[in-house]
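Late entry, written up from scratch paper. The run itself happened at the end of the previous shift, but nothing got recorded in the book at the time, so transcribing now.
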Amino acid sequence: MARAYLKKGNIDKAIDEYERLIHFNPASKDRRLMYPKYHYYVARLYQEKDKKESAVKHLNQFLKIWKNADDDIPELIDARKRLEELTNQ
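Output as recorded:
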């Protein structure tokens, strides 16, 4: 759904959908694993909306989850670059 909202140009609804997918709801019977790249995707959207604090939070979480990943993964390279830019502003 988040990608569909993005295609329609509704960034706020896309952010809401990614946040829903990322956060565990103990009342729900749905027990799927969270896709780590959702943190990266939502961080990019927060950065686009000028919500620096939220972008930094999700980039840090993404990098924490992928701390042992290969260094040449494009999303990992971009996440590190974005985090550096946001924290040096």
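The mean pLDDT is 93.
(Scratch paper discarded after transcription.)
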